[in-house]
């Protein structure tokens, strides 16, 4: 097959050590394309590139590509691109990978079980030398509320239903999912929060979801509920979260994402006894699987000239 000589740059954040692995995997998945790490692009390459594959890139790098028509993110969350490319004509395609959804669903189940089976309490008791069994609660008596019923939220909901939990979910548009109580709108959110023991956040970060989990919304949860945030740090108001944890209104928070990442060493979350902290690892991307999905989208674009549609700039996700 004839090789397409217009390069496809791969652009990652400064600290990303996986660039060679991504370039190799993408090249393997697209042998008829020329995938080039940003640092290896010639001036001509920069001039001609119409498509770029990106992993949370520095926006200044995108500005060096004057012919760019669209970018394919290998991250599922694209809030930074949506902001950086606002007002431009450049299209954004994000990663939608069933393998990523399965990994996230596994993480949601794992950390829901961690909270459900009272592991934070048993850990604290162990540290105090306390031998004190707690009453067993069956999953059928535990309500899990999922914020966001998209690719990751739906897969997670199905996994929780299989495990026997009572599951509710909240989305922008009304939905119908087997075994899941589906809610939408402000009233739907209030209804869901009031009956949730474990709240799982899988929303995209947008103008509408930034700071959504603040004093008023967290205050609607029953006393002693817990939070799992696997989405984006800025969806949660940190001061309100800290106050709810300090008072015991919220029993525990499992936090994988933060407003600033890596989380600064002096941040309160590191030491808080009611926080379990993870380094943005709940759903790692499988490079080979993602490269295959990106390759399918690029191939379709080469054949039809049409940019695959999956991110709507106006709604922010
Ligand atoms: P999707 O776009 O597929 O789903 C988003 C869901 O959120 C949809 O159900 C959508 O509603 C809902 N939603 C969006 N805005 C609102 C709103 N204002 N009110 C109510 N519901 C809303 O995203 P994914 O499931 O693929 O990913 C979700 C997020 O997970 C990503 O944006 C990313 O931030 C995060 N993520 C975290 C990872 C990690 O390792 N920690 C890994 C990968 C992703 P509707 O269905 O009506 O459109
Ligand atoms: C993300 C990702 O969006 O890792 O967090 O894909």
Task: List all distinct small molecules, including ions and cofactors, that are bound in this structure.
Answer: NADPH dihydro-nicotinamide-adenine-dinucleotide phosphate, oxalic acid
- Unreliable stretches covering 5 or more consecutive residues: none
Number of strands: 12
Shape: elongated
Discrete helix count: 11
| H/E element order | EHEHEHEHEHHEHEEHEHEHEEH
Describe this structure in words.
Helices cover 35% and strands 18% of the residues. The protein has helices at residues 19-29, 43-48, 59-63, 79-84, 98-116, 119-127, 151-162, 185-194, 215-218, 238-247, 287-304, and strands at residues 7-12, 34-37, 51-55, 70-73, 91-93, 143-147, 166-171, 180-184, 198-201, 225-229, 250-255, 275-277. It is an alpha/beta fold. Strands 8-7-6-9-10-11-12 form a 7-stranded parallel sheet, with helices on both faces. A 5-stranded parallel sheet has the order 2-1-3-4-5. Helix 1 packs across helix 11 and helix 5 packs across helix 7. It contains 11 helices and 12 strands. The structure holds NADPH dihydro-nicotinamide-adenine-dinucleotide phosphate (NDP) and oxalic acid. NADPH dihydro-nicotinamide-adenine-dinucleotide phosphate binds next to helix 7 and strand 7.
């Amino acid at each position: 097959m004839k090789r397409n000589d217009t390069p496809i740059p791969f652009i990652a954040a400064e600290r990303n050590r996986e660039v060679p692995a991504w370039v190799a995997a993408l090249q393997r998945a697209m042998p008829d394309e020329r995938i080039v790490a940003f640092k290896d692009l010639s001036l001509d390459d920069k001039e001609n590139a119409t498509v770029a594959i990106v992993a949370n890139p520095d926006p200044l790098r995108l500005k060096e590509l004057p012919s760019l028509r669209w970018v394919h993110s290998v991250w599922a969350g694209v809030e930074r691109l949506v902001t950086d490319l606002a007002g431009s004509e450049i299209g954004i395609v994000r990663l939608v990978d069933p393998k990523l959804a399965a990994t996230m669903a596994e993480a949601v189940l794992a950390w829901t079980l961690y909270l459900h089976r009272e592991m934070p309490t048993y850990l604290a008791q162990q540290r105090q030398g306390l031998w004190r069994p707690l009453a067993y609660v069956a999953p059928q008596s535990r309500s899990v509320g999922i914020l966001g019923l998209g690719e990751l939220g739906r897969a997670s909901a199905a996994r929780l239903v299989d495990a026997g939990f009572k599951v509710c979910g909240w989305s922008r548009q009304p939905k119908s999912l087997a075994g899941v109580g589906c809610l939408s709108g402000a009233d739907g959110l209030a209804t869901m929060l009031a009956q949730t023991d474990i709240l799982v956040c899988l929303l995209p970060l947008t103008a509408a979801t930034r700071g959504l989990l603040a004093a008023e919304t967290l205050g609607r949860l029953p006393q002693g509920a817990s939070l799992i945030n696997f989405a984006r740090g800025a969806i949660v108001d940190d001061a309100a979260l800290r106050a709810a944890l300090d008072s015991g209104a919220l029993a525990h928070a499992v936090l994988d994402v933060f407003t600033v990442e890596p989380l600064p060493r002096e941040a309160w979350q590191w030491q808080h006894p009611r926080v379990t902290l993870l380094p943005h690892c709940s759903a790692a991307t499988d490079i080979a699987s993602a490269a295959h999905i990106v390759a399918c989208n690029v191939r379709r674009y080469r054949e039809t000239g049409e940019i695959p549609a999956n991110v709507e700039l106006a709604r922010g996700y």
